[in-house]
Amino acid sequence: MLTRIAIGLVLVVVLLAVSVWAATLIQTEYGRLEFEGNELLVVSTNNDPPKVRLRAPARSGYKGCWTADTERRDGGYEEIALICFGQDERYRSDPYNFTGAINIQVRKYDPSIPDDQQFKKVIEIAHDGVRFNVPVFYGQKVVPYIRAGAGQYETHQQDDGNLVTYDVLRNPWQAVWASGFVNGVTQ
Question: Quick one: DSSP state of residue 135?
Fold first, then answer.
């Protein structure tokens, strides 16, 4: 009986040691890469924050993407959303212009259309602004603005591209902030 208990305890200790060991994938003087449950962790052990770098050749527009996949009935996987990092499209004629952008893309599945064409850029983030390529909803209603401050302020994307916040309790409305981005140019 004691032998079985001792063997059981040894197995528990070995399993714990293996699970702890397996959790740390890489260890350096600067940090470690761990796998914990279903999460991949990048842990810094110094005062520099942890980073994940995605790297591609200079002539590649996108430098990397994070994707979310879901399982198909046949066991394969399909991408359903992407966050892509790369060079701002307005500067791609010069592959060594390091002006960056982030695009969030979401897929509308249609088996009659090639995979890449099913993705739509819903948000584009650049050094000079944010572009929403889909309507903004409040509940089930599409709204052309974002409201804050108990209804005192509304932020509107104007037709010229300028993003403006108004104090709507004043008559007439008073602009309290503007991006200064008009027709693709920062004013």
Answer: -
